[in-house]
Write a structure and sequence with these properties.
heterodimer, A: 117 residues, mainly beta, seven-stranded mixed beta sheet, 11 strands, 51% strand, B: 117 residues, 0% helix
Chain lengths: 117, 117
């Protein structure tokens, strides 16, 4: 079974631009979460989608948004990029719904490294 | 909100020595606890998890962790480390468990384990 894939793996953008990152979960997984990883702040939760609905959202400005499609693939978008948005963005998928098949395991993709100049 | 504290940011050890990576969490309710490992330029891989039951949890690659509710700790141990264990290790707590709903993970800042020959 293929793992979580994220595209692109590396991205360089300029301040003020916008960017869209993509995440394809493991087949059969319905939950997708996004995390931002930086040296200073560590791993921070961005948002979580389950069956196309945002189920939780972290403490990030409205410039950060996401969505999930009917095939569970997810995208996140960052508008008006700032230098501080430079980070590794990690996507994780799981079966979804505590109590559904009960593994409670999130599988992470390799991440997209975004550099804002 | 829950928080996770990893007491050591860096832990250097010699090959074949035992190691313990410390993790404390703050929560007044039941939680699910996880340890993840991140190798350079990769995503996170689940080492082990505590959901309920036995407080001693065994994971992959010879790692184990002990859940201590009274001390709100979940320390990770390995009796004999290898060079290949050099990586960053993250402790995480599930904020939504076990009540259901969101699968958001709250991570500690990470511990960089360096195994020297």
């Amino acid at each position: 079974k293929a793992g979580v894939t994220q595209t692109p793996r590396y991205l360089i953008k300029t301040r003020g631009q916008q960017v869209t990152l993509s995440c394809s979960p493991i087949s059969g997984h319905r939950s997708v979460s996004w995390y931002q990883q930086t040296p200073g702040q560590g791993l921070q939760f961005l948002f979580e989608y389950f069956s196309e609905t945002q189920r939780n959202k972290g403490n990030f400005p409205g410039r950060f948004s996401g969505r999930q499609f009917s095939n569970s693939r997810s995208e996140m978008n960052v508008s008006t990029l700032e230098l501080g948005d430079s980070a590794l963005y990690l996507c994780a998928s799981s079966l979804g719904g505590w109590g559904l098949a009960g593994t409670y395991e999130q599988y992470f993709g390799p991440g997209t490294r975004l550099t804002v100049t | 909100a829950q928080s996770v504290t990893q007491l050591d940011s860096q832990v250097p050890v010699f090959e074949e020595a035992p190691v313990e990576l410390r993790c404390n969490y703050s929560s007044s309710v039941s939680v699910y606890l996880f340890w993840y490992v991140q190798y350079p330029n990769q995503g996170l891989q689940l080492l082990l998890k505590y959901l309920s039951g036995s407080t001693l949890v065994k994971g992959i690659n010879g790692f184990e962790a002990e859940f201590n509710k009274s001390q709100t700790s979940f320390h990770l141990r390995k009796p004999s480390v290898h060079i290949s264990d050099t990586a960053e290790y993250f402790c995480a707590v599930s904020e939504g468990a076990p009540q259901g709903g969101s699968e958001k993970l709250v991570f500690g800042k990470g511990t960089k384990l360096t195994v020297n020959p």
